């Protein structure tokens, strides 16, 4: 993971207000940005996830905005069951989406979702509930099966990325892939396990995600990586 070679765009620490709730986030909006990708992290992770931050930096290099934020408060995260409450996580993502639409820097931008592990299920449920306003969804090592009742309602072009050695999750993604009726693709990264810790595998995830978001959010040819 060549994080030291990536130049981070200017970012803002933000507080996402959802009713009485306050969630902490990191917003990066490159100059002239037209699209922003919201990150939904997996169980036990946070806005500081090194993997999601790496992917976010690659997206920023392609002039895409990013928002990394905590789906749960610190107190909520201490309750283990909350980490697998997909409905709760999806509602938080929906709230953050509305916040982005109102935020001065992001107002009028196209919106995409990047979800990892359980966050991918939350992203797919939220995309199904919002509809075509979510321009694209990418799942990394995701559990889309946890959003099974919503998969047939997803209308956003969806890319499922799984590691070649993550055999159980591959099967779950294959089943989810058949249920999704929107434009879709399933990418299996050679040599990768669930966390994409092997050399070059996370870089491949970032490349695939960038290409997908550039195609469906920006409507351009594949962006150089």
Description:
Helix 1 packs across helix 6. Residues 1-5 have low confidence and may be disordered. Helix 4 links the parallel strand 5 (110-116) and strand 6 (134-140). This protein has six helices and eight strands. It starts with 10 loop residues before the first strand and ends in a 7-residue tail after the last helix. The chain has helices at residues 50-61, 74-77, 86-102, 118-130, 167-179, 201-218, and strands spanning 11-18, 21-28, 35-40, 65-69, 110-116, 134-140, 158-163, 184-189. With 225 residues, it is an alpha/beta fold. The chain has a single domain (3-218), classed as Alpha/Beta hydrolase fold, catalytic domain (Rossmann fold). It has an eight-stranded mixed beta sheet with strand order 1-2-4-3-5-6-7-8, sandwiched between helices.
Defining traits:
alpha/beta; Rossmann fold; 8-stranded mixed beta sheet; 6 helices
Structure at a glance:
By secondary structure, this protein is α/β, with parallel strands linked by helices.
Taking pLDDT < 50 over at least 5 consecutive residues as the criterion, the unreliable ranges are 1-5
Percentage of β-strand residues? 15-25%
What's the mean pLDDT score? 91
- Rg over C-alpha atoms, rounded to the nearest angstrom: 16 Å
Number of DSSP strand runs: 8
Number of domains: 1
Please give the alpha-carbon distance between the first and last residues.
Answer: 14 Å
**What is the H/E string?**
EEEHEHHEHEEHEH
Main β sheet profile:
8 strands, mixed
Number of helices: 6
- CATH fold-level topology: Rossmann fold
Outline type:
globular
Strand order of the largest sheet: 1-2-4-3-5-6-7-8
Report the top-level CATH class. Alpha Beta
Helical fraction = 25-40%
Q: What class would the helix/strand composition place it in?
A: alpha/beta
């Amino acid at each position: 993971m060549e994080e030291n070679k990536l130049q981070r765009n200017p970012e803002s620490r933000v507080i996402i207000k959802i009713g009485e709730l306050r969630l902490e986030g990191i917003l990066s909006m490159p100059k002239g940005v037209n699209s922003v990708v919201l990150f939904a992290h997996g169980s036990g992770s946070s806005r500081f996830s090194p993997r999601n931050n790496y992917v976010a930096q690659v997206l920023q290099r392609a002039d895409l905005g990013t928002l990394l934020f905590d789906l749960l408060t610190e107190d909520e995260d201490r309750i283990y069951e909350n980490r697998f409450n997909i409905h709760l996580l999806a509602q938080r993502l929906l709230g953050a989406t509305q916040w982005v639409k109102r935020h001065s820097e992001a107002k009028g931008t196209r919106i995409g979702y990047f979800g990892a592990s359980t966050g991918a299920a939350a992203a797919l449920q939220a995309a199904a509930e919002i509809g075509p306003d979510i321009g694209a969804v990418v799942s990394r090592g995701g559990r889309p099966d946890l959003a099974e009742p919503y998969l047939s309602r997803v209308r956003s072009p969806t890319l499922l990325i799984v590691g070649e050695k993550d055999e159980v999750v591959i099967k779950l993604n294959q089943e989810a892939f058949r249920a999704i009726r929107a434009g879709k693709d399933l990418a299996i990264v050679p040599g990768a396990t669930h966390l994409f810790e092997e050399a070059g595998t996370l870089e491949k995830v970032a490349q695939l995600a960038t290409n997908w978001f550039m195609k469906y959010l920006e409507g351009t040819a594949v962006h150089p990586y």
